[in-house]
Amino acid sequence: NARCVGIEKTPEAQKLGKEHAVHCEIILGDALALPFPPKQFDISYSLGLFEHFSLEEQKQFLSEQARVTKNKVLVEVPFKSPHMITIMWFNRNIRGLRGVWADDELFNKKHFRKKFGELPFEYHISATALFMTCWFVLKPKDIDLFLRENHFPRS
Predict the structure, then answer these.
(1) What are the tens digits of pLDDT across the range 87-120?
(2) How far apart are CA 56 and CA 32, in angstroms?
(3) Do 53 and 33 touch, CB atoms closer than 8 A?
(4) Which whole-number Å values give the CA distances from 65 to 35, 71, 91, 155, in the listed order?
(5) pLDDT for the residue 153
(6) Alpha helices by DSSP H, 22-101
(7) How far is CA 130 from CA 31, 49, 83, 106, in A?
(8) What's CA 105's distance to the chain center, in Å?
(9) What digits encode the pLDDT tens for the residues 61-90?
(10) What is the DSSP letter of 139?
(11) What 3-state class would DSSP assign to 64?
(12) What SS3 state is found at 80?
């Protein structure tokens, strides 16, 4: 039996989540301070979030995901491809946008490795998302060890 729980930070986002993710429980909360006990979920998954955080917030995010997850942490982020670089440039420079779809951090294997050193991960590029996203699959115990070795306090 699978259980899907989504977390949104604002009531407006929670309302939209409930309208679009009808098979998930959508709750209010903060991804940097998850309101769940340790090892509550077999798998945790994030989409469209990680790339908006600073490096310290990304570490806190990974720490929280590892805390509440037993087996795998999946992080889906925008893929650093010519296509996505062009979209971001166009939205920023031609359309004058800021924030989402204009200033997102773009990822590939090399970029993730540069930010997170020897943190082990599986890497996948999403063809089903038209090569606009990539996935990092991490083990909670590896995240814990990496953060401890890099003197990042656990949440």
Answers:
(1) 999 999 999 999 888 888 999 999 999 999 999 9
(2) 11
(3) no
(4) 11, 11, 31, 10
(5) 67
(6) 55-68, 82-93
(7) 27, 19, 10, 15
(8) 11
(9) 999 999 999 999 999 999 999 999 999 999
(10) -
(11) helix
(12) coil
